[in-house]
Structure formats: C-alpha cells, structure tokens
Amino acid sequence: IKRYALDTLDLTGGAPEMHPLFKDLIHEAKKLNIDIIDRCNLTILKEPGYEDLASFLASQQVKIIASLPCYIEENVDKQRGKGVYQKSISALKELNKYGYGLPNSKLILDLVYNPQGAFLPPPQLTLERNFRKELLHKYDIHFSNLLALTNMPINRFADYLTSTGKLLEYKQLLKDNYNPMNLSSVMCKTSISVDWLGNLYDCDFNQQLGMK
Predict the structure, then answer these.
(1) Which pLDDT belongs to residue 2?
(2) Residue 11 in contact with residue 36, Cβ under 8 Å?
(3) Cα dist from 150 to 96, 100, 141, whole Å
(4) Residue 136: its pLDDT value, please?
(5) Own/partner pairs for 6-10, CB < 8 Å, 24+ apart?
(6) In what order do the strands lie in the sheet with 63-67?
C-alpha cells in the first residue's frame, strides 16, 4: 500500500459542510496534525441548522477560502442569485466576530475572485486593494488575502465559450499570457484530488474531466 505524507486536507463542494460527517472528518484530521481548508460558499453559514458552523470552524482553527466573485452587490447577485451578496456579507461579519481575517489573527479567511466572462482577472494585488477598501469602508469587514483565479476552459465554462463563439479566442488568450514562472507553484504537482467515490486524480481540473 502506498502511503502519502499528507499535511493539508482541502475540503470543497458545492458545500462540503452539508455532509453529515463533515465535523467528524475534521476532528479525525486534527488528531493527525493535518491542516484543514474549508472552501466555503459563505451562504451556508446563514442556512437553518448551521448556526454553530462559524464557531466550530474557529474552534478547530480551520482555514477558510471563501468565494466572493465581486465586491459589488449587483454583480454577485447576477452570477449567484438574488440575495446571495447580502447573505455573504452577513457571513463574513460573523466570521470576523470569531476572529477570522482580522489583523494578526491566526484564523485565515481568504477570498476568491474569478472573472465572470472570457477575460483574465485584473492584477491580484490591485484587486485585493479594491476589495479591502470597499468591504472595510461599507461593512467594516476584514479578510486575510484575495486570490484571483483564471477560469479553465472546461465543462460549463467551455460550454458557455462554445455557445458564444469565444472558445478558440479564449484559449489563444491563455496561450498569449502564458508565464513559465508559474510552473514552480502549480498545485497539481503536489496535490491529490479525491472524489466522493474515492477515485484519485492528480488535480481538480482532471477530476472535472474524469481523467483518473
């Protein structure tokens, strides 16, 4: 049996918090001194039955990577559905209450931005400054870091690009902006992706494509 030296457990969904054994898995991972990341959609914290979720994550020192596609309410609700933005803001305030994302706090709260169309994200540091300024000014919300992601032309996004006639154009955009310096930090070189049936993949993109 091949054994892996695992130091991080990265839980994602949908909403991984809805799995009935979510808390049990975190408790067992903590016994092995494994760092845990919860990729949270934020709105789950506002759903009935999950009122203690923020408190639990804080007590277990789980790192949170939360999806917030924009700091503008109209843009978020257009992409995610009406009311999602305000639920997300309420969830962020609750996480701040438990110490997440505050200056010098060990409870990490990172936000994730990804473009809503066939274009690349703005420079990450510039975007982070804008997010920090808007969220702090309007809602007194703090966070640790902003992560700007580039969309991969697979699955639903590929279908969208195909239907709008932009697939080849977008692929060329990615080629034109290729940066070999990124190769040293590609996640897929050191991560194993496991689906809900236990199948293994060498990255989450290949999992989405069914390439075991």
Answers:
(1) 61
(2) yes
(3) 27, 26, 25
(4) 97
(5) 6/32, 6/34, 7/34, 7/35, 8/34, 8/35, 8/36, 8/37, 9/34, 9/35, 9/36, 9/37, 10/36, 10/37, 10/39, 10/191
(6) 8-11, 35-40, 63-67, 109-113, 145-148
- CA torsion 73-78-81-85 (nearest 10°) is -10
How many CA atoms lie within 13 Å of 110's alpha carbon, on the beta-carbon side?
15
Cα angle 175, 176, 182 (rounded to 5 degrees) comes to: 70
- What distance, in Å, lies between the first and last C-alpha atoms of the chain? 18
Angle in degrees, CA 114, 117, 123, rounded to 5 = 45
Crossing angle of helices 155-163/167-176, nearest 10°? 120
pLDDT (tens digit, 9 = 90+) per residue, 145-184? 999 999 999 999 999 999 999 999 999 999 999 999 989 9
Q: Is the pLDDT of residue 107 over 60?
A: yes
Cβ atoms of 98 and 55 within 8 Å: the answer is: yes
- The tens digit of pLDDT for each residue in 26-73 reads 999 999 999 999 999 999 999 999 999 999 999 999 999 999 989 999
Q: Which of 80-84, 138-142, 200-204 has the highest mean pLDDT?
A: 138-142
Alpha helices, DSSP H, located in the chain: 22-31, 53-59, 73-80, 84-97, 124-139, 155-163, 167-176, 204-208
- Token pair for 13: 């969904």
